Amino acid sequence: MSAAASIPMPDKGPIAMNDTSHTPAIEIVGMSKWFGSFHVLEDIDLKVKQGERIVVCGPSGSGKSTMIRCINGLEDFQRGRIVVHGQELRQRARALDDVRKKVGMVFQQFNLFPHLTVLENCTLAQRWVHKVPGSVAIDIAMQQLEKVRIPEQAQKYPGQLSGGQQQRVAIARSLCLRPSIMLFDEPTSSLDPEMVREVLDTMADLARDGMTIICVTHEMGFARGIADRIVFMDQGRIVEQAPPAEFFDAPREERTQRFLEQVVR
Amino acid sequence: MIDYLASGWGLQFLSAIGTSLTVAALGFFFCILIGILCTLFARSGFRGSAGLVSLYTYVFRSLPDILLLILIFYTLDGAIQALLHLVPGMSGVRLSAYVPAVISTSIVLGAYATELFRAGWADIPQGQHEAGRSLGFTTLQSLVLIILPQVYRKIIPHLGSLCLISLKETALLSIIGIPDIVRTASIGARSTGAPFVFYGIAIAIFVIFAILCSRIFAHLEQRVRQDRAGAR
Ligand SMILES: Nc1ncnc2c1ncn2[C@@H]1O[C@H](COP(=O)(O)OP(=O)(O)OP(=O)(O)O)[C@@H](O)[C@H]1O
Ligand SMILES: [Mg+2]
């Protein structure tokens, strides 16, 4: 956590207005989900503006992963609605293709394809999903690898990279598809401490570029520096959401206070 | 030995090699197909599909191959003949013995292949499927581009043994009258009274193929290895 505290603050100025900027990037309304009889998400309401940076935190098992996995259809849900850029996600995980093209996801375990080189990891979906011609796909991949500062590793295999490098490749792989929203599920939790910083820096770059971000993380320094809003979850509910200053310095809910005491000491 | 080979047995052996190799290659190809399809079916989530696949692999791995071959040969032959009778104009057609031969070899080897693919598949982390889905790949694309190549890498050494077994399995074909390597050798041995020469040739052929086979798979394994270098 201390590693992230000194991250440079991105410019939080107003996002450039365009004709669609009034539609929220993500709108979750009254969403509920059960795993069998276990009510994992209860009546979730969350509205994310374009270019907004949301950090989701909360105790283990509170449903953070499940919530963001619902946004790109990795999990289905039983009640309520999720609308991504004006497109409603059907409750029964169908017609997700359009939404998945707009939403990138980065996982705790990187999930790079181990049998492909870094470059191939970055071109595979471009070529097969977006039908981008080979040479163009390579150009885009190299651009993104430069952005995450590892173009020199392009010909290596994921198994030859450090955890931090792998996670940056995973970010580049997502960015190659030009998503307008990025979801991060504890992207630094399985990294050695000395590698946390390089990944957080990469995410800070993204935030600076105006990407809409929802990030589940326990890096409170990062949250404070980057987030427009912090969403705190407990037992399947959104308990409190507030801008970082308010969230950390004057949390309203008792559960939030207890959580912050444990995490920030 | 040269005399025997020159006096027509050489050609016999060549055609026997062709026969055995063809059946082995087809059997190997189909058993891989069966392995993949059964694995997909077992994972499809249909009620009882996994149990059904387990039953298949259990039965066909535990009974002696020779029993199965005979069983499959006769029942299949009868069934196919009966089917052909239903089609107008096909009643006079006799089925080549190769068809049940290939089918039975495939089914038996398919049981082993299925076990291999299921084990290999179970080794692929759930995250690989999720990464594929979140990048927008269809199920088929994800299967062909992401999952199967990784399963292949995990099971390639075992595929090598399966390939060897498929060739060995063809020796059984002699009992249903197919002139494979073993049958040719035994006929030659009996009619010339030189068993050592003929069985020696048969052994030599199998050994040579075993060596070739392991060479090929060692090479394939080598190619796959590169991306494991430095892997955790
Ligand atoms: N596939 C599943 N089937 C049944 N229960 C599940 C499944 N996935 C998650 N759960 C349960 O749902 C609850 C929420 O899980 P989730 O992974 O969303 O929590 P989380 O907030 O991300 O926790 P963590 O901080 O540990 O990652 C947990 O109690 C978990 O055990
Ligand atoms: Mg989680």
Can you name the CATH architecture of chain A? Answer: 3-Layer(aba) Sandwich
Compute the separation of the termini of chain B in Å.
Answer: 55 Å
Low-pLDDT regions of chain B: none
- Give the amount of beta strand of chain A, in percent: 15-25%
Give the number of DSSP strands of chain B: 0
Largest interface, C-beta closer than 8 angstroms, per-chain residues:
A-B, 30 and 24 residues
> Could you name the CATH homologous superfamily of chain A?
P-loop containing nucleotide triphosphate hydrolases
Structural class of chain B: mainly alpha
What's the short version?
The complex is a heterodimer of chains A (265) and B (232). By secondary structure, chain A is α/β, with parallel strands linked by helices. Chain A has helices at residues 2-5, 64-71, 97-102, 118-128, 134-147, 163-175, 193-208, 220-226, 244-249, 254-264; strands at 26-35, 38-48, 53-57, 79-84, 87-89, 103-106, 181-185, 212-216, 229-234, 237-242.
Report what the structure shows:
The complex is a heterodimer of chains A (about 260) and B (about 230). Chain A has helices at about 1-5, 65-70, 95-100, 120-130, 135-145, 165-175, 195-210, 220-225, 245-250, 255-265; strands at about 25-35, 40-50, 55, 80-85, 85-90, 105, 180-185, 210-215, 230-235, 235-240. Chain A is an alpha/beta fold and about 260 residues long. Chain A has a six-stranded mixed sheet with strand order 6-7-8-3-9-10, with helices on both faces. Chain A has a four-stranded antiparallel sheet with strand order 2-1-4-5, covered by helices on one side. In chain A, helix 7 (about 195-210) links the parallel strand 7 and strand 8 (about 210-215). The longest helix of chain A is centred in the last third of the chain and has 16 residues, at about 195-210. Mean pLDDT of chain A is about 90; it is low at about 1-20. Chain B contains eight helices and no strands. Chain B has a single domain (about 1-230), classed as MetI-like (MetI-like fold, Orthogonal Bundle). With about 230 residues, chain B is mainly alpha-helical. Chains A and B meet through helix 3, strand 6 and helix 4 of A and helix 5 and helix 6 of B. The complex binds adenosine-5'-triphosphate and magnesium ion. Magnesium ion (MG) binds near residues 64 and 186 of chain A.
